[in-house]
Amino acid sequence: MKSETSVLISGSGPVGLLLALGLGKAGIDTLLVEKHPNLQPATRACVYMPVVVPILTKLGIFDKIQEEGFFNRVGIVWRDSEGQPLAQLPLDDPKPDQFGGVLQLGQWKLAQIILNEIKKYPNVEVCYGAECVGIQDQPEEEQAKVMINERFTTTETLIKADYVIGADGSNSSVRRMMCIPFEGFSYPWRMIGADVLYDFMSEENLAPLNFIVDPVDWGVIAFTGEEEGGARPGSGKPPLWRIAYIEPAYLTATKEGYMSRAEKRIPECFMKHGSKQFKLLRAEPYVNSQKVAAQGRKGRVLLTGDALHSNNPIGGLGLTGGICDAFAYGNALVRVLKKGESDSLLTDCANSRRNAWLTMTNVLSQGNIKRLYGFDEEGIGAREEFFSRLKVDESFSKDIRGKFDKMLPETFE
Question: Which GO terms describe its molecular function (predicted)?
Fold first, then answer.
């Protein structure tokens, strides 16, 4: 592991990896550390809004993603608890020279594609099993000092870095070490993400991306873009789907408990018409909150992705926003480190990304989730008006698509 670097990134999810890739392509010395021993093979996020397509294209990985992923040109379909359609939001791009649609690809598979591309750049070092455990950032010193613990050898290494990026998730240790408050609220329930082998399209007549509306059994059913064993669509193997739903937080919080409840809940609530012959691969809880860091930059430390902002997963806006973060931060860092522009540009970028979440992503994601479970008078009225406008007003659909683009108001190119 190098002892000095221009940029140290903590966290090897797609956001941290994309940032490292952008810096690698620009020739900037980069060290990425990840506390886990390797990429975590769980689907997690699997839906990305169209705003990410130009980003992935500019970073040179869109062609590979086209090969590995699935592009949903139907958009989002809202359904009742019996699977009957209530409304649809097309998300295809009307411009004939651009791809239109929703990218659906498991988070870990996207991360693997990015990691393979990073290997082309010797100026980027990726170290697994290495955790950031301490940060010293003194204004009078030229660089930040970061203590890295190599978890499987118990070796500790002091790294000097011009900038430190926290891309280590909503429970960010970088954010905590810098004493930056994480402001907002957590939802009162526990959300479960389950990976299931089952053909929801042919068995249940579902679209690739479905939002289920119900006061209790609301959730999301989405195709991950792959089939059993990571095979590409069309291999003939059972397709892999992601189901997100909630359960009371007081239920047993064990792997066995999540799996046993999912085995019963999924066919009862989300398989109404087909054979119900499915295979459950995993069922795991994850954080469900609407929070943002009080500041995106403190000294030489910047926060990105879920370390900067966290929102509910309905609509895939969390990782979509994180990809926008990585692109903007990468461009700003290149301008500062390679072109000699003012360091204040990074503050502008951090503020821009935080404000984009507050004014757009946060609002959109809260609207998405309330539209599924809101059954009081206000919730029903708002949902019915939304669905009615989708059905009769084409400009309304275009306005919604335009809001996704506003998740990246400034690229800092």
Answer: FAD binding; oxidoreductase activity
